[in-house]
Specification:
Order of helices and strands: HHHHH
Structural class: mainly alpha
CATH superfamily: Tetratricopeptide repeat domain
Mean pLDDT: 91
Number of strands: 0
Distance between the termini: 48 Å
Strand content: under 5%
Number of domains: 1
Radius of gyration: 14 Å
CATH topology: Serine Threonine Protein Phosphatase 5, Tetratricopeptide repeat
CATH class: Mainly Alpha
Length: 97
């Protein structure tokens, strides 16, 4: 199934499937990229975006935090983490009221 040579190929495939809303396949390709390079923050961010799109904000937050441990200044990870935290906060406040 995976005929790709590098983590970059796998990330590009993950992005392609994420854009098609084929999240299961996207995560498989991001995971494949992480097999090549376990600390690839781009693959981790990709997984976070997928989980965020599925409204699995807690899992997405963990992915973005992991990416930021590896690459603390990554603007996308910071942006997506902030967005997920706001969505969780709004969801919590809505349930609380």
């Amino acid at each position: 199934m995976f005929l790709l040579d590098t983590h970059n190929d796998s990330i590009l495939e993950g992005m392609k499937y994420a854009k098609k809303n084929d999240y299961e396949r996207a995560v498989r390709y991001y995971n494949k990229a992480l097999e090549f390079e376990p600390k690839n923050h781009e693959a981790i961010i990709g997984k976070g975006v997928v989980f965020s799109n599925q409204k699995n904000y807690d899992i997405a937050i963990k992915e973005f935090e992991t990416a930021l441990e590896i690459q603390p200044s990554d603007a996308n990870a910071i942006k997506f983490l902030d967005s997920c935290k706001k969505k969780v906060s709004v969801k919590f406040n809505f349930i609380k009221i």
